[in-house]
Write a structure and sequence with these properties.
Two copies of one chain form a homodimer. With about 425 residues, chain A is an alpha/beta fold. The first copy, chain A, contains 16 helices and 17 strands. The radius of gyration of chain A is 24 Å and the shape is elongated.
Amino acid sequence: MEKVGIGLLGYGTVGSGVGRLLQANAEAIRLATGKQVELRRVLEKNPDRAALVPQGVAVTADFDDVVSDPEIHIVVELIGGIEPARTFQLAALKAGKAVVTANKQLLSQHGAELLQAAQDAHTFLRFEASAVGAVPVIKVLRESLAAAEVTSIMGIVNGTTNYILSAMADTGAEYAPTLKKAQELGFAEADPSEDVGGKDAAAKMAILASIAFHSRVRLGDVEYQGIESITDADVAHGKSLGLVPKLLGVAKLLDGRMNVRVYPCFIPNEHPLAGVSGAYNAVFLESDSFDKLMLFGPGAGGTPTASAVIGDVISIVNTAPGGFIRNCGCYKDLGFYPDAEVVSRFYLRLHVADEPGVLAKVAGLFGEEGVSMRSMLQTGQEEAAELVLVLHPVKEAAFLRALERIAALSVVRATPSFIRVEGDYAG
Amino acid sequence: MEKVGIGLLGYGTVGSGVGRLLQANAEAIRLATGKQVELRRVLEKNPDRAALVPQGVAVTADFDDVVSDPEIHIVVELIGGIEPARTFQLAALKAGKAVVTANKQLLSQHGAELLQAAQDAHTFLRFEASAVGAVPVIKVLRESLAAAEVTSIMGIVNGTTNYILSAMADTGAEYAPTLKKAQELGFAEADPSEDVGGKDAAAKMAILASIAFHSRVRLGDVEYQGIESITDADVAHGKSLGLVPKLLGVAKLLDGRMNVRVYPCFIPNEHPLAGVSGAYNAVFLESDSFDKLMLFGPGAGGTPTASAVIGDVISIVNTAPGGFIRNCGCYKDLGFYPDAEVVSRFYLRLHVADEPGVLAKVAGLFGEEGVSMRSMLQTGQEEAAELVLVLHPVKEAAFLRALERIAALSVVRATPSFIRVEGDYAG
């Protein structure tokens, strides 16, 4: 039986998961490919990790040992970060080896260069595990939906923020103590800034939007905003309106251009994404061809991510030689749709003076900018008086113009807090 | 550019959808495959349908015109039913053509024969659209999760029953008028028996279980039960317990054997499947490798199903020649796990005499069979007195033995109604 050799760069949580799955599921992989896929070499400098590599597999601290091994056909890069991962991937591709990676930082910043290198060498670059862990959304987008024009992607693509927002909605607690608890439970890193600030989600959305829209989207093209400013008051008001808070990656195709952003928003209880709670991830896709599709699953974790890596390995073994990789030459160049022109629904909370005529002033300014209100709730009194508004869909520029004028009103006591509402809100 | 010719059998709703998508998305398909995929011939005897075939595509009433055309590489069978679809597929495969089909009846009854024919001819048989419409669950199972041992599949795989049960839960209406309304709205067929009786779901589960467990499951191996006996009273009681009714296909791997069934059941509100309402479908998978994954989308409809067919076509064009098809020789033969041994949770509603000691009698009989109760609710009085019980997980045989004895009690007024509870019920 034909053998396919694997070289694995990095034997940390995901790497050792790949090593374990390759051994434990050797028979299943043989059934799935008709070939014997075997781990030949591992690049790992850390002796504690190196000690975990199965017997019979060579361990090295020198990348050249991997790239120069003619019996290694696929290099799996699980080191993470930009360098030396980038140099290693480029060298492996140049040597004609296929590359599988989970490296979202690298893909979202240097994806074009790497895909070009794969194309030039007539080989493969696969990166399912870089987006939504075990959820095979890249494969589905690239293969099952290749002929469908995807018009919208909404993704819960960061488990840490989803865990925190779910917990805030369940318990009514504030952001800071909820983050602390998430850290204690291992659902948030000691330095959670890339997660809670939205950058992790932005990198994943850059990758997903590139694949879905067949156009280049880099991390730098994705504007992102985190969940740090979501308050328990907003979460509670949302609940009373039938809305749950989520950090969403939203990528839309509007008039043939792309708008890709990450922001906290409210979605209706009835929306399929609303039920995706805790550390789970999900991607919700829309298209005229297939209506709506959602994929849900664990977005992180050693074994689920390793499972996605194995899926890519199998996919490479089963793909036609010279088979298609959606690559440099085949990309469209769609350009970006300006945020200001995007039509959105908004939730808005205003801390106001408890006096007559406040609502009239706010409504008046909104009216002048063509913004109309869908619902209004006035709560508290005196110093705690608040106006909670949900607006009809409106161009963001008009909303922000009106908001600036409203914030300047003397009856408005603090910086207004607003949250977009995604999904079809009928409440 | 290399051309790939398509022969299409049947130009009804799905067939014309395929014709339309092949034309409308020609550029996207070229990007996805590097080849020019074109519709060459359509087999369609109905003149009204034949008139819809695009100009330049030959229409014929003779299958031989299709199978003998050397420039047709892929035959798409959308006639449905067993014959002549079976004969056509076998002839196409024997002629070395790849076959794509949406025919769940044929696949779930003659899948082994067809897959063997594909293997013998070193060609492909693909049938994504036969299971869950646009939801690419077969591809995900066969490729992304090929190395993961799937241990459980729970599927909402019939849109008609999901629409009816969702509507009953929303409105509190009874089954019969809800079915009638579903028929008026086009969500149920004039003869809905295969849908509401569970046979349609059983055929789809046979296909999904075969792929997931790498073992043969035929329609005849799947015991199925429909939703006709679900009452508004059960739905209402379920609601008060935090449970929603669903017709589920449930396939489990238990001690290395398979148990594949279709039955109405309750699932907790918090379960991801609970939010799948209306005519949507979803498949929920569990495995040690990836924890939980769910795929959600439209289970039927001309364009979504056509989109799945196109996905299969692209997949064939992109798969290595002689590339792997999970086929005859590669199947395990797992055998079936007896229903009686399966451990399930049960909801049970008893119409009882309104007199003291009824609960004690019921509890006593359950106790003798080792069945313990988790919660109890007594409602109504006199002729309408009811006991609603939720039991702790129990072997089905023990439950059914106890139930038989309880049904025979003089204080039990009517045939007891029971419903399984799936998903982790903590309520």
